[in-house]
Amino acid sequence: MAARVSIRGASELAAAFRELGRNPTAAARRKSRQAAGKVVSEAAQANLIGNDSVVTGALVQSMGVAEDQQKPNRTLVGPRAGKFKKMRPSSYAHFVEFGTAPHWQPNRFGGTMHPGARPKPFLRPAYEQNIEKLAQAYFAQMKAEIEAAAQRIAAKTPRGPR
User: If we measure between CA atoms, which residue out of 101, 23, 91 comes closest to residue 59?
Assistant: First the structure.
């Protein structure tokens, strides 16, 4: 004689797991990328101040985190587009990062020779020195999002007698 076994609540459990599988959502992933990007942005600002690259303060003020408009699921960290103290830091930030060779400037004071500038890296070292903090910030935010989703699912799942 074969014994029959049934599990009460199995279909509800399967439905809850399917719902949890749809998380984290795109918005939750975006929040996590933003949290990680903020770590790099703050470190880059500190690097700019630390390597004596602050002349007007526009580049430091423009550092930020933003979503890429051309590619979904990509977050950009660096100088934002726009004017800060009447300057556009996103147009010259690479000169600070990589330096410049001596060059002729025909439109400056009737034409002058610029002596060049040594590189003062700020963004790449900010990333490289904070990879662990970046990962911790990303996964802490992701953990919070998943736990919140699990609590929402648990709250709306009907509970029967035990």
Answer: 91
What is the Cα–Cα distance from 111 to 118, expressed in whole angstroms? 21
Instruction: Give the integer Cα–Cα distance in Å for 9 and 130.
Output: 46
- Nearest Cα to 36, choosing from 146, 149, 124, 130? 130
Q: What is the pLDDT of residues 101-113, one digit of tens each?
A: 999 999 888 899 9
How many residues are present in the chain?
162
Would you say residue 89 lies in a domain?
yes
Number of structural domains in the chain? 1
3-class DSSP state of 78: strand
Q: Is residue 61 one of the residues assigned to a domain? A: yes
In a domain, 119, yes or no: yes
Q: How many CA atoms lie within 13 Å of 32's alpha carbon, on the beta-carbon side?
A: 19
Question: What is the residue range of 58's domain?
Answer: 27-156
pTM for this structure? 0.78
